[in-house]
Amino acid sequence: MKPAAFVYHAPKTLDAALALLAEVAPQDGRVLAGGQSLVPTMAFRLARPGHLVDINGVAGLDRLAVDGDVLSVGATVRHATFEKADPKFGTLGALLADVVHNIAHYPIRTRGTMCGSLAHSDPSSEWCLTAVTLGAEMVAKSVKGERRIKAADYFQDIMTTALVEGELLAEVRLPLLKAGTKHGFYEFSRRAGDFALGAALVTYRIEAGKIVDAHVGVGGIEGTPRRIAEAEAALNGQAPGAAAFAAAGKAVSAVVDPLEDAQTPASYRRDLAATVVIRALERAAA
Amino acid sequence: MSDTVSITLNINGANHSVSVEPRRTLADTIRDDCGQTGTHLGCEHGICGSCTVIIDGEPMRSCLMFAVQADGRKIRTIEGLAKGDQLHPLQRAFIDNHGLQCGFCTPGFLMLATATLEKNPNIGDEELMDVLSSNLCRCTGYQNIVKAVKQARAEMRGAAK
Hints:
Number of helices of chain B: 5
Strand order of the largest sheet of chain A: 4-5-10-6-7
Helix content of chain A: 25-40%
Radius of gyration of chain A: 19 Å
Largest sheet of chain A: 5 strands, antiparallel
Distance between the termini of chain B: 53 Å
Order of helices and strands of chain B: EEHEEEHHHH
Structural class of chain B: alpha+beta
Largest interface: A-B, 30 and 30 residues
Low-confidence stretches of chain A: none
Strand content of chain B: 15-25%
Radius of gyration of chain B: 16 Å
Number of helices of chain A: 10
Mean pLDDT of chain B: 96
Oligomer: heterodimer
Order of helices and strands of chain A: EHEHEEEHHHHEEHEEEEEEEHHH
Number of strands of chain B: 5
Low-confidence stretches of chain B: none
C-alpha cells in the first residue's frame, strides 16, 4: 500500500506547470491537485506515474469568481469551499452546497478539488454530474494554448475525458442559474460517503404553472453522466407533481444503458435511475 | 529508490527536518521519520480516517498527502492535544463516555472532532453526524463516540462564550 517512486515537481506559475507537463506527460507524468483519488490509486499501484506535477502552489489557480453569467472555478479550489452557499453565486451556490455534502467525507473535501474530480471523471462523481447537467465549460490549457470544451463533449467514457496529453484542466465555468430556478439532487449509496450507485440532479423553472427549461442529469448509472432528453421532454410543459415526475422516471429507465458489477445487475441500476430522478424532482419541488 | 527531498515539518509547534522520497506519505513520515506514532494508519487509501491530522486548521487524511506537500505547514497530531497532564475536553469526554475500546481509531476521531469543534462549537447534530461519518470504528458501534463528542461540544461551547 505504498505508492511507487516518482519524480516530484512543484511549479509556482501556470507557465512553468504547463512547460513541465509538456515535458513529462509522455513519460506518464500526471497532474497532482487534491490527490484524493490519484493517491489511493497510486497506493494500490493501479497508477504508477513517472512524474507528478503538483499544482497546489501555482499562483492564480485558486481563483473562484463570478465572470458575468458564469461561476469560474480554478483548478485548486477545494470541494469544501462550496459547503456554505455563497449568496454571490445565487441559486447556483445553494445547488453546489446541496451537492457537495454527498462527496466523500469532510476531511476529503478539505483537500480534493472540483477540477480534479472533473479530470478524474469517475462515473459516480457528483461534480461530473453537475457539470453535464448545468452545461459547464472546461478550460484546458497546455503549452499549445487554451481549449474550451463543452461538458456534453468532454465526458467520453469511464474515467476518459476529452483532455489530451499535456493538458491541464485549469478552470471549469458553471453557468449561473436564472432567478426562480428550482433544483434537486439525490444520490443513493450503500454507506455514508461511499461512491453513488446512482445519482440525479434536476433543475427547472415554472412559468404559468408549468415546467420549463427542465434539465435532468443522471450519474453513476452509465459510464459517464449525461442529460436525458426524453425525461426533460416528459417534464417540459407539465405541471410539477407526481404524474409528471413518474413519467420522467419512466423515460429515464427506458433509455439508460446501465453499468453492471458483481453486486448490481443492469436491471438494478435501471430501476434505481428512475428512483433517483423522481426523488431529485421531489426535492426540487419541496 | 529515488532522490530524497529535504523538508521541515512543523508538528505540534516543533520543527522536524527530514529527508524523504517524494512518494513517502505524510502519515508514514510523521510516524517513521518524526517518531510521532500516535497517528495511526489503517486502510492507507483514505477510507478509514485513522490517520486524520489537522493541517492549517482543517482535518485531512495524512495517508492521501505526500510529506513534501506539507513542507512548512502547521500540522497537529494527537500528541499535541493534551496540555501537559491536562487532557483536552475531547480526550476526557472519550474516557467519560467509553468512546473507545481498542483505541486504534481514537487518534483519528479526536483530531477530526477537534478541528470540527474548534471551527464551530455550535455545530448542529445533523452536521456533526455527517462529519463523524468520515471515520471508521470497529469496536464501539459509534454511539459512545457521538455521546463523547456531544459532551465536549457542550464544554467547548461554554469555553468559547
